[in-house]
Amino acid sequence: MVSSKEVAKHAGVSQSTVSRVMNDPSKVSKVARESVLRAIEELNYRPNSVARSLVNKKTKSIALISGPLHNPFFVETTTSIINFAKEYGYHTNVHFENFGDNMSLYKDVLSHKFDGLILSSIFYDDPIFEELKKLDVPFVMFNRKHQSGGHYVEIDNLAAGKLAAEHLLKLGHRDIAWIGGDLRTTTFHGRYKGFLDEITEQGIRLPEHFIQVNDTTQKEVHRAIESMLASKKRPTAIFAATDSIAIFILDYLLEKGYSVPDDISVIGMDNINWSSHHSFQLTTVGHDGPKNLGQLAIEHLMDLMNSKEKQEKINITVQPKVFVRKTTKEL
Predict the structure, then answer these.
(1) What number does CATH give the domain 157-288?
(2) What is the pLDDT of residues 65-97, one digit of tens each?
């Protein structure tokens, strides 16, 4: 079996440099790092990760608890998190939200050892937060946060909801519906409240069936829009609280022969990559930055994990903007 000493000799560096490349590559120059990685590949070196973790008391792994995989937002953020962690030599154990059964999910996650935790699946008053605080590892929340604070990266959901409502109101819409997920999460609660506050300020009262809360799956979103359209009072516009929900709505409307936006305008939320696809051209609300919330969160988690000094609270709230495309129009 090839040893790290042989790798060092082959790469023309010290054995300690090989160790740093394996454990903390950010502290090694690009030239030395590439030389070591090339030697590892050429010699087919397989480090003993178990032995290394015992020496360093680190697992070189992080745990990710993501939202549901049917939402492309979480596909994008999960990809960013895994790729960034991999660059720094960390393996990511990914777990996806179980709608209505998060406690069993957390029980499974917390039964394993890891060096850091990044999560998006948490309710505003989730009792699991106290358990997370007892962990001897840093954790960062993204997209959602807890009422007790902690480290988090989010978008201003209240402002986002107001922006979506303002956009539709300026286009002349008054019969505006809202479809979203569990209001116990800060994402949906904030987007709903911002939307409703803006609508109410304009003196508009929405019928009960214009507000639909569900588990955000395609089946439930289709059921919600079907319920709205079955009534004599139909919306002329819909604010979908995620782009995933908006895409499910577009799919249903087009299947049933409706024209978007001629018959119904639709605005989403998150500005995922798919929203600008020529097949959708979805008007949406999101933050105007090169990094998604998952990327921002994992960068800060790495700082927390690798810093020897006590870090200040990471409370980041990015600001939203409207991306006007082709699924909304003036009445």
Answers:
(1) 3.40.50.2300
(2) 999 989 999 999 999 999 999 998 999 999 998
pTM for the full predicted model: 0.82
More confident position, 50 or 27: 27
Quick check: do 59-155+290-318 and 157-288 share a fold? yes
- Give the chain's mean pLDDT: 91
Q: How confident is the model at residue 37 (pLDDT cuts 50, 70, 90)?
A: confident
Whether 116 and 62 have beta carbons less than 8 Å apart is answered as: yes
d(Cα 166, Cα 208) in Å, to the nearest integer?
21
- CA dist 88 and 82 (Å) reads 10
User: Is 59-155+290-318 a CATH 3.40.50.300 domain?
Assistant: no
| Tens digit of each residue's pLDDT (9 = 90 or more) over 270-305 | 999 999 999 999 999 999 899 999 999 999 999 999
